[in-house]
Design goal:
6 helices, elongated
């Protein structure tokens, strides 16, 4: 075993009997690059083969586990999200309703009993 397989074996051993597998997974992911973070889950499934923790890990959404690994490695939890906050921060915000609800003579949701079969929120 070398590199990623060794790391996966160490994480698998650390998971034995642990209640919080996510904490072990995060701690074991520290220092991974994006490629290693992407491959660790597969290596971990191999390392856990036949152990009770394998079933526990398999029962969790695999994309979520990848996000836990990436976060533990110090990466954005979702690949490609690096520029998302900057991109959204640079956009001009526009109102959802025109005219804006506070300036409108109408209510978006009738609340004066105009529709007796419609429940009030």
């Amino acid at each position: 075993m070398t590199g990623l397989a060794d790391r996966a074996a160490a994480i698998a051993q650390a998971m034995t009997g642990q209640r919080d597998l996510y904490a072990v997974l995060r701690a074991g992911s520290v220092g991974l690059d994006a490629a290693g973070a992407g491959d660790l889950l597969t290596a971990l499934h191999i390392a856990l083969s036949g152990q009770p923790e394998a079933g526990r890990l398999a029962a969790v959404d695999q994309a979520f586990l990848c996000a836990v690994i990436r976060a533990g490695a110090g990466l954005y939890p979702v690949a490609g999200a690096e520029g998302l906050a900057d991109r959204l921060g640079g956009l001009t915000v526009h109102p959802v309703f025109l005219p804006e609800i506070v300036a409108s003579p109408h209510t978006a949701l009738p609340t004066r009993g105009e529709r007796p079969n419609m429940p009030a929120f």
